[in-house]
Specification:
The complex is a heterodimer of chains A (about 240) and B (about 220).
Chain A lengths: L14 H44 L2 H16 L2 H11 L9 H27 L2 H9 L4 H31 L11 H12 L2 H36 L5
Chain B lengths: L4 H42 L1 H16 L3 H14 L6 H26 L3 H9 L4 H13 L4 H14 L11 H12 L3 H33 L3
Helix pairs in contact in B: 1-2, 1-4, 1-7, 1-8, 1-9, 2-4, 3-4, 4-6, 4-7, 5-6, 7-9, 8-9
The chains are: A mainly alpha (about 240), B mainly alpha (about 220).
């Protein structure tokens, strides 16, 4: 039997809905910082991934070892431990980067270490014959890499890179623990103020989810774009 | 500021007892993840349109949202529902659910790699659905994916420091408290980093050995 309108408890009428809208501006402000950190760290991570990946594959000994050490250290320790080390321990040695720079540096280096393995794997997966064919056409080693191998490897890199970017987006939540007011930090702040825990955290989960969908969608488009050449050109894979 | 070995040695016993909590959380969390992940994978495969679809959406949602938020969610919301758990148990639950979503995808790959003929043979031999999964499909689906599951165990181990956010006294939390008391963060945090590095490098060597053992079996003759 439906209850008469005046018996419905107040909190189930229009208040929660208008309440959600009240929460949104603060959370969106946090989302902006979250996305900024994601974008800057992704750019840094991409650069580190390509440099370290190529160095592990092609560079002579000392450089090769340096890249391997970087990859092992950042993949072998926890992202939060890295963040704390750079934020709490490094300033004691006289290097004070500030919270934002620490966040993008650590998350970028962390993503780059995982990305280096993606780059290495994708380059290794290009068939050996492509190197030989390019050499017989008179390409040098660098030219072969840049014009023949890398464009083919790039296509294979897209799906794992999409996963890495989503991991990065999720890892940005950790920066709330080094005082940055990202989406997670704002959620905690709002929770302490309003105690509307369920609504706030569901909303925040939804915002992260939508951002992740956006990355998946973007990477899908990038993959189709990079695959175009393959459909018209030679018959690979 | 130089690395003070004396102070590092002083903090070591506390850190090691924190490391025990970290390892406990990892092992228990993985048990939850392996069990719940298998349940999700089977439901996704056999659950039909509604249950299978719900499992698929749950997996995708959990995988695309931060573990830290999921931790906070359980930590603050469960007591409101009348469920009071210790921070460690809450943390184990959150780690377990988060990684169950990843494990479900790994199991799925294993299940999909079982040849169609095995399903048909099991059905034609009159195995009921439960026995078909238990006796025919899963024994072939799981061994090839054991190395992949091992990689997620390592990933989970590296995510346990997040439990410090809900007051669990795991190794990073111990290091942070030691640092805050003495204003020397360098030694405890570096030690924690070294502990993670040594343990996860050792573990990934073990996974590589598993790959050598199970990887060959995975390939069809």
């Amino acid at each position: 039997m439906p209850r008469p309108a005046h018996c419905v408890p107040q909190r189930w009428t229009n208040k929660p809905v208008s309440g959600l809208i009240e929460l949104l501006p603060t959370l969106l402000e946090g989302l902006r910082l979250t996305l900024q950190i994601t974008v800057v760290a992704a750019a840094l991570g991409l650069a580190c991934a390509v440099v370290a990946g190529l160095a592990r594959e092609f560079a002579p000994r000392p450089l090769n070892w340096l890249a391997a050490t970087y990859v092992e250290v950042f993949r072998g320790t926890s992202a939060l431990v890295q963040l704390f080390w750079f934020f709490f321990a490094l300033p004691l040695m006289g290097i004070n980067l500030g919270a934002f720079l620490t966040a993008v540096l650590v998350l970028g280096l962390n993503t780059g270490a995982y990305g280096a393995e993606v780059v290495r794997g994708a380059i290794g997966a290009v068939p050996r014959g492509q190197w030989e064919a390019a050499a017989s056409l008179g390409y040098g080693r660098a030219g072969t890499l840049r014009r023949v191998i890398f464009p083919q490897a790039a296509l294979a890199m897209v799906p794992p890179t999409g996963n890495l970017l989503i991991e990065l987006l999720k890892n940005t939540a950790l920066v709330s623990m080094i005082t940055l007011s990202d989406l997670t930090f704002r959620a905690q702040m709002l929770r302490a103020e309003t105690l509307r825990t369920v609504e706030i955290f569901l909303l925040v989960l939804l915002l992260y989810y939508l951002a992740a969908r956006l990355i998946t969608h973007g990477m899908g488009r990038l993959e189709r774009h990079l695959a175009r050449g393959r459909d018209h050109g030679g018959s690979l894979s | 500021m130089n690395f003070d070995w004396g102070y590092a040695l002083e903090t070591l016993p506390g850190l090691l007892s924190g490391l025990v909590i970290t390892l406990q959380a990892t092992v228990l969390g993985m048990l939850v993840a392996l069990t719940l992940g298998l349940l999700l994978a089977v439901l996704r495969h056999a659950g039909g349109r509604w249950i299978g679809g719900a499992a698929r959406h749950f997996i995708e949602f959990v995988r695309s949202t931060p573990l830290l938020i999921q931790l906070y969610f359980l930590f603050y919301v469960l007591p409101g529902l009348g469920v009071t758990l210790s921070p460690l148990v809450t943390g184990v639950l959150a780690l377990g659910v988060h990684y169950a979503a990843y494990c479900a995808e790994v199991y799925r790959a294993g299940i999909n790699s079982v040849p169609r003929g095995q399903w048909e043979a099991a059905a034609s031999l009159g195995y009921p659905a439960g026995a078909r999964w238990r006796r025919i499909i899963l024994p072939q689906a799981i061994p090839p994916v054991i190395p992949a599951l091992g990689n997620y165990l390592i990933a989970m181990f590296k995510d346990t420091p997040l439990l410090s956010a809900i007051t669990v006294m795991e190794v990073l939390q111990v290091a942070k408290i030691a640092g805050a008391e003495s204003f020397r963060y360098l030694e405890p945090l570096t030690l924690v980093g070294v502990m993670f590095l040594v343990l996860s490098l050792t573990a990934s060597r073990l996974v590589r050995r598993l790959e050598a053992r199970y990887g060959r079996q995975a390939r069809p003759a």
